[in-house]
């Protein structure tokens, strides 16, 4: 039994290692293809196309080709520009993004998301074709049907525009585009907004706490007590507002906060601070017993202090 269990375990480990290796190879392939496509697109020049290419319309061709990937890159870029126009950059971004994601998250199933990838790129091409402000010069510069290429011209302009009008087509395509983006990436916009708001709140809270700690370190004991008093009053008001919103009864105030000046004539308290003694007015004890809402602030003010 032990030998069988050990053999089964070794087989599982070997299979896991093999799967991880294939996942890394697949991720590197996606990254490589996405990089090649991107470089071919940004350096595309119609004059780089060889004369034997059927859709080559400029002669003589550049020798050598100016495309970063050479004549093959020019042919590849021309095919994608012809089919999906500027949406070719969306395809390059998808390849690079999924390649990086697959490299760090081997369990990501890219092939299962292929339908959403196709829908995402196609709807993007149709939206690019319907807009009339940008990339309109591509029609003549690249000898294509428009910014959305053949897919944008046939699906977006011929089918949707003639049957639904421009406004209806844009609304439909925008909905398909966003839905495909969500299903393709697995990202939920509402969840992202909530997380962003929560992170922003935590950031400002920590920033406020850092500033407060800095003020506490730079202040003497009396200044620390004044800062603590202000923070306790602020926290008390926040808690009261929350209770009122929830309809809960708000406890009566335990008395207004008393400023240190009101205790000028009261007896002093002797406080031992490390290597020496300091005398602070009676407001020390008064502040300590009022509204213990933010205990951490009160404790920080008396850290290492012995009252005698």
Short précis:
With 308 residues, the chain is mainly alpha-helical. It folds into 2 domains: 2-189, no CATH class; 221-307, no CATH class.
List key phrases describing it.
single chain, 308 residues, mainly alpha, 2 domains, 3-stranded antiparallel β-sheet, 10 helices, 3 strands, 65% helix, 4% strand, disordered C terminus
Task: Walk me through the structure.
With 308 residues, the chain is mainly α. It folds into 2 domains: 2-189, no CATH class; 221-307, no CATH class. The protein has 10 helices and 3 strands. It has helices at 2-42, 70-84, 88-104, 114-130, 138-141, 149-185, 189-218, 221-246, 283-289, 295-301, and strands spanning 269-273, 276-280, 305-307. Strands 2-1-3 form a 3-stranded antiparallel beta sheet, with no helix packed on it. β1 (269-273) and β2 (276-280) form a beta hairpin. α1 (2-42) packs across α2 and α4 (114-130) packs across α6 (149-185). It is elongated and about 90 Å long. Residues 268-308 have low confidence and may be disordered.
């Amino acid at each position: 039994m032990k030998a069988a269990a050990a053999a089964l375990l070794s087989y599982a480990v070997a299979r896991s290692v093999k799967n991880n290796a294939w996942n890394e190879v697949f991720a590197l392939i996606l990254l490589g293809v996405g990089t090649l496509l991107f470089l071919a697109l940004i350096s595309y020049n119609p004059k780089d196309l060889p004369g034997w290419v059927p859709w080559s319309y400029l002669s003589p061709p550049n020798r050598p080709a100016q495309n970063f990937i050479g004549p093959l890159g020019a042919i590849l870029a021309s095919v994608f520009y012809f089919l999906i126009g500027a949406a070719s950059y969306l395809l390059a971004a998808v390849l690079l993004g999924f390649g990086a994601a697959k490299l760090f998250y081997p369990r990501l199933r890219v092939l299962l998301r292929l339908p959403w990838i196709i829908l995402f790129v196609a709807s993007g091409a149709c939206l690019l074709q319907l807009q009339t402000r940008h990339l309109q010069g591509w029609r003549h510069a690249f000898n294509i049907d428009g910014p959305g290429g053949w897919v944008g011209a046939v699906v977006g302009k011929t089918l949707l525009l003639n049957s639904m009008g421009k406004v209806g087509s844009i609304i439909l395509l925008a909905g398909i585009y966003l839905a495909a983006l969500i299903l393709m990436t697995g990202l939920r916009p509402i969840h992202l907004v909530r997380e962003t708001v929560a992170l922003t709140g935590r950031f400002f809270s920590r920033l406020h706490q850092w500033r407060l700690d800095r003020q506490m370190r730079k202040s003497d004991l009396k200044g620390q007590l004044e800062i603590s008093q202000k923070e306790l009053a602020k926290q008390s008001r926040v808690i009261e507002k929350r209770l009122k919103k929830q309809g809960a009864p708000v406890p009566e105030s335990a008395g207004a906060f008393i400023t240190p000046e009101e205790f000028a004539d009261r007896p002093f308290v002797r406080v031992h601070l490390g290597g020496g003694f300091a005398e602070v007015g009676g407001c020390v004890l008064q502040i300590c017993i009022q509204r213990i809402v933010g205990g951490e602030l009160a404790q920080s003010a008396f850290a290492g202090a012995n009252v005698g």
